[in-house]
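REQUEST ID: PR-0412
SUBMITTED BY: lab tech R.K.
PRIORITY: routine
TASK: structure prediction, single protein chain
INPUT:
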Amino acid sequence: MSRALFILPAIWAGSHSERFFANPFASQALALFLRDVVALALSLVLASAAGEAEAADDWQRTGSMSNSRACHTATLLQSGHVLVTGGRDGAERDLGSTEVFDPVHGRWGLAPSMVIGRSMHSATLLLNGQVLAVGGRFGSEGLTSVEVYDSRSAGWSVAASLLQPRLGHTATLLPDGKVLVTGGQTFPGSGLLNSAEIYDPETDSWTSAAPMSRGRAFHSATLLADGRVLIIGGTSATTIEAFDTETQTWTDVGFLLYKRQQHTATLLDTGKVLVMGGEGLTSDIHTAEVFDPVSGVSSLTPNQLTRRTGHIAVLLPAGRLLIAGGKSQFNLTKSEAYNSFTGTWSETSSLAQSRSCATATLLPSGKVLVSGGNSGDSNTPTPSSELFEPEPSIVGGPRAFGRADHSAVLLPSGKALIVGGERSPPSTVVQTYDAVSGQIDLAGNLTFQRIGGTLTLLPSGEVVALGGVDDIFTFVDIFNETSGVWRQGAAHSFPRSYPTTTLTPSGKLVVAGGSTRLPTTFPTAIEIYDPVLDSWRLGGQLRTGRTRHTAALLDSGKVLLVGGEGPDTVRSSVELFDPKTGVTTSSDDTDPSLCLPSAPPHPDQPCPLLSPRTAHAMLRLLSGQLLVAGGADSLDHRGLLATVESYEPTTGKWTALPSMT
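STATUS: complete
OUTPUT:
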């Protein structure tokens, strides 16, 4: 759909401009183009703006928790709230209490307590929206205890226990929705574990996974874009190993230049992993290194400005990594930022209160919530929390915010919401553009990049993002402009990139076509999404698989699907889908004689396009007719089309219009 943006200038400048505006469709086409592509036009600002706004990063105090705590967990819920669990208080008690932060009102509220108190545990957001709290310590004992928090019932329930006690371990959500737990210790000061186990939320069961090559505790685990889990460092370890989720095997993939534990390892927008800080053999480490998962090589990057261990690291939009707190002899207030594009460090404003073993959570607003931690010279847990606010208005250069194959929609406020698309480096950052003020703001993050996905404004004012180049995640992301929060919706059955999504008068979405990558397939199933019930059902079948096609709702309530491409050809065929009956009618079944100008009308039997085309633009005019323009007539998209044609739903026929220049 973004290619429609370039049609109007071509029409205005063309040698057929007088004939075009004499055409009865012209004024309607112009009005609809201006209405429907304004959001896409605004999104070009992101790709053409130059320079960067001067940073105005700032820390601000926000509400305090009811309990002082350190070495706890903080998990961003699908609602946009933050769940904090466990930790140790000033009396060195391992807490069972939990609290929830409301970012809209800046307030903390108590939540139900866990069954067992714990610190040095893990908390993982599952695909179903529940939170899995695993292991940790209670007093001098390691725990096998596992509990699940359900935000809908706001309660905890006991889950299947770990196969062995663990603290100082890692827990990683895998692409299939399972959780990989690695390493740790069975009790404080005990030997290092090399074992790993996998939790299946559907069966509430743990199974042993292949062990790591060596024992580790207080290491890091990073999920890579290819689905592997990268394990780095830990007590006395320099080796880097990766877990392949498909083969369920471990492979040594590289070495750290410096031994480190209690460090951070962050996947950058470049696809590389920045490893920084931590505790070495004799002191806290000043060095930072970048590991390339493709080449298996670690290389030094400039040292961070402050030695630190037990700090927090959060990847911000535009490739910046925020580092704050930690300790080096004493707990620190200093914070700094790493620019992944230039490989340089810069100072940011300091925390209001020193803290180590704290938590940091990137909120949908783009702010960072830091809570709790050990503070001051006495190393006492604190209940305080702070918010880091990056510069909210971004006029980024094309390297940071250029997009292709993205989606944009006009929100009820008049702002344009710009989502997904292909970027180098890749990013899930979402932005809004205000045409009145010219301001570009952050609007949270998608679950994944969504190249070639769709974006649909619902009657409720919410926006549904679905599809995109990814064969694992099939759930939808839903944006509420009022709260500024993204939440996860139900998953559809078939992965799809470049599908079409059509809003019906009943408020449901018809999702059709698209393709998968590995292997390349073209699903023919049509799925229907009910946003009110957050549920999917099978609606019917396409006669022919297609992707990069277009779709439009007709006055009859039926959906017309036009052109696109299949595995070996660009399509001229058209299909008419009736959401009420689930019946699809194809132009392949239409007698060619019915498509002659002199033939009688046949609205229920569509004619094929006059020219095969894919990646074209189509708009529904105020008259109910459809205007199709441009696209390509070859699978490599090199044969670009200037032709334009219109579809009359009452006759089922196409008519050639003057071509673009």
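NOTES: The chain is about 5% helix and 35% strand.
REVIEWED BY: pending
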